[in-house]
């Protein structure tokens, strides 16, 4: 559960987490820092259980969701907690494939050790792009190995029963990120941690 900081006293429960990445190590994050992108970005999506009875109801409310954003920095070092997931990706290469994690994944271990972050009120980056998110984007990236990124880039966007769409990406899930949009009237706050 998340609480405190920009979330006040409300409690937010983790619903799901997912990642965005690019075809190269210099793009893939949905947020940028001074115009610079990272190889990818992890989103841990939480919903406000204090005010709403379901994720669906929270997703349409301005204070309904809180998303933690964590940058992926390409390196030679595998991230041990993420490895529990990326090691299984070769078994779920097609849309609809499923696998059970043999070892529990601790989402807290996917966060950087330094807790400085930026926060703002914004929208989901995928449809329906609802203006319902309190974003908390960590300033420090986590190191992710190029092998881990390649495992993500090797996923297919089509069902095993379907033909490959044979597009410019050969049916791969690559560049599954939305380019950053202007902040507009949003207020970006910087919070220093330890």
UniProtKB/TrEMBL annotation:
Tagged with keyword Zinc: yes
Any GO MF annotation of the entry: carbonate dehydratase activity
Alphabetical keyword list: Lyase, Metal-binding, Zinc
GO cellular component, one term: cytoplasm
SUPFAM superfamilies, alphabetized: Carbonic anhydrase (SSF51069)
Enzyme Commission no: 4.2.1.1
SMART domains tied to this protein: Carb_anhydrase (SM01057)
Catalytic function, reaction form: hydrogencarbonate + H(+) = CO2 + H2O
InterPro entries: CA_dom, CA_dom_sf, Carbonic_anhydrase_a-class, Carbonic_anhydrase_a-class_CS
Co-factor(s): Zn(2+)
Domain Alpha-carbonic anhydrase: 1-192
Stored PANTHER family: CARBONIC ANHYDRASE (PTHR18952:SF141)
Function: Reversible hydration of carbon dioxide.
Family to which the UniProt record says this protein belongs: Belongs to the alpha-carbonic anhydrase family.
Protein's name in the database: Carbonic anhydrase
Gene this protein is translated from: CA7_1
